[in-house]
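quick one, 143 residues, struct below
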Amino acid sequence: MRKFLLLIAVFILGFMALGQIRVLVVDESEGLGESLRLLAVIRALKATGFFVFQALQKFPTERWEGEPFQVAIYLPAKGPYVWLCSPWPETGLPEEFRLALARLREAFTQAFSPLREVRGPEKDLYPLLLTVSLASLGYLGGR
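---
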C-alpha cells in the first residue's frame, strides 16, 4: 500500500513540475452518444487539473496564432478510430509527458470502447499526417 501511495505522489509531483498539458480536441462526430462520451472523458480529465482542453467542431484550415497545443485528439465524423496526435515521438519525451499521454490514451480508450479504437503514430501513419498538418498551421508544437 505504501508503494502505491508513493507511486501516486511521484506521479502527481511529476505533473506539477510539468505543468498543465494543453490538448486540442477536434470533434467532428455526428452522434449524440459519441459527443456525450467525449464530454464525459474531457470533464473527468479536466477535473484532475493536469489537462487544459480547447475544442473545435471541424478540422482547422486557418493559421492558429495562439499558444500551440502539446497534444491533439481528432474524432472524425465516421470511422473506427480516435486519432491521438503529438509532435514528438514518445520515446524522446520526459517521463511525466509520457505518463500524461498514456493517461489520455487510457481515458479515451475506456470512453470509446468498443465503438472506436484510439490510435497514435506508433500504430498508424495517419496520426503522423494529421500532426504535420496541425503543426504547419501552428496548432501543435508547444512543450
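Residues 95-112 form the longest helix (18 residues).
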